[in-house]
Design brief:
The chain has about 280 residues and is mainly β. It is built from 4 helices and 14 strands. Helices cover about 10% and strands about 50% of the residues. The longest helix is centred in the N-terminal third of the chain and has 9 residues. The two termini are about 20 Å apart.
């Protein structure tokens, strides 16, 4: 059970082709000043962990970049049995929206892991350096697309404006492996969260273009709920394992710097109840 919780948290630190039109870039989905704070629950452990995501502008090698920082950790009883802490830093080109550097470091029990990844989009390769910049690096063949970690990719879907039945492809990087995913818009659903009641669109990533591997091969499934108000917030993530389900729920959100706060969520219309599942 605790291992499954850590796997959900790992997702946070580990080119999109539209079915009809090109997908918006990450620059349209995340903006400087935005923060997202999630609490992670697992079965009887409501406070199993937390995920924090922040967006800033920061110089990298003298060039202004958009930086997305994700920090995750177990808490409470889960932290006692499986100490897990991780930080992921992704730097994006402010013109193209492409990731230029991904840096991840994690602590599982007493083991520390760290790696850096840079991307060459002309050659379609990535340079993976475990440990530090001075360690021996190796070249990875990069499939078509613009790679990011899974959580950043799922958050980016808030700018896609998909409708149920539509889909887009996405390239995700887990450590040193690329996953070619197809993200499906499945249905609308009404849900309740600490931030209010939301009308949401449920998105589900699947491995369809290549043989499933990793968590997808083991039968796990991932879902994200995107609010259908003007903020398009990713209000919930869920990872379903054979042994249970881990859920990350948005408990606080900060809008972009200089933005006017959007109105609070309102209860979903009663007429939508037939196709919605209201659950905390």
């Amino acid at each position: 059970m605790i291992r499954a919780v850590s796997l959900l948290l790992v997702l946070a630190v580990c080119a999109v082709r539209a079915s009809a039109t090109e997908a918006p870039t990450l620059l349209q989905a995340l903006h400087p000043g935005e923060t997202f704070h999630y609490k992670v629950a697992w079965a009887v452990l409501p406070g199993a962990g937390e995920i924090n995501i922040g967006v800033t502008n920061e110089a990298l090698d003298g060039v202004k970049r958009l930086k997305v920082t994700t920090t995750t950790r177990t808490r409470g009883l889960a932290h006692v049995f499986m100490k897990f802490e991780a930080t992921g830093e992704s730097y994006f080109d402010e013109q193209t929206g492409r990731c230029v550097l991904l840096h991840e470091v994690s602590l599982v029990k007493k083991k520390v892991s760290e790696h850096f990844v840079t991307f060459d989009y002309d050659k379609r390769t990535a340079l993976y350096a475990p440990g530090s910049w001075t360690s021996e690096s190796r070249e990875l063949s990069m499939p078509a697309g613009q790679p990011v970690d899974l959580i950043t990719q799922l958050i980016s879907t808030r700018a896609w404006n998909l409708q149920p039945g539509e889909q887009r492809d996405a390239l995700v990087l887990f450590d040193d492996e690329f996953y070619e995913l197809t993200i499906h818009a499945e249905r609308y659903e009404n849900i309740s969260t600490p931030l209010g009641d939301f009308r949401t669109l449920v998105l589900v990533p699947r491995m369809e273009k290549t043989p499933p591997k990793g968590m997808f091969k083991r039968g796990s499934s991932v879902r994200v709920w995107i609010s259908q108000d003007e903020r398009h917030l990713p209000v919930r993530f869920e990872v379903e394992f054979k042994v249970g389900t881990g859920t990350a729920t948005l408990v606080s959100y900060t809008p972009p710097t200089g933005a006017t706060a959007a109105p609070a969520a309102q209860p979903a219309p009663a007429s939508d109840a037939a196709d919605a599942d209201s659950r905390p």
